[in-house]
What does this fold into?
Amino acid sequence: MLDTAARRLFAPALEAAAARIAAAGVSPLTVTVAGWLAGVAACGAAATGRWWLALVLWLLNRLLDGLDGPVARVRGATELGGFLDIVADFSIYAGFVVAVAVARPEARLACVALLCAYYLSGTAFLALSSLLERRGSTIGDARSLRFVGGLAEGAETVAVYVLFCVFPQWAAPIAWVFTAAVAVTAVQRVILGVRVLRGPAPSRSPR
It folds into this structure.
């Protein structure tokens, strides 16, 4: 829900930093891998209850994730980079929830429910993205994939994981509330998919 506004707010600073990183010869894949490693470390810190370290590493993961796209636009974006970026994101999103479940046993049921909601929302997102691209649709914003938004997007995930780190004793209610938001997002994407895909595909102009 807040991703578009967040990108608009942070884009100038990220693009300026990305230009310097690219000028130093750093590849976008290197940035993606560094961000993923920071995310893995954040999951490990959270699983062992080192919440402030987890918070710093999680924010570092998100910063590097915000940089790899602009670096790719400077150095030259590739389909492989886009593919690895989304896999890295999804693995850390899920891994952090597992880490919270390990550290806070009372939140385990809520974390399982959140992972289920992620599964449904992610399936709808990836399937719809692929089909919209195949149909030549302009719905959503076209990054490496065609992103279709909803109530719970990247910005909301950042905020919720920050809350996990700052208020770990409230992990269960935080996870239940976010589960509801992600479930609503899944329903939004399914409704959009049904509405768009039941109609005929737009005709493509001949080459």
Q: What stands out?
A: The longest helix spans residues 108-135. The CA atoms of residues 3 and 155 lie 5 Å apart.
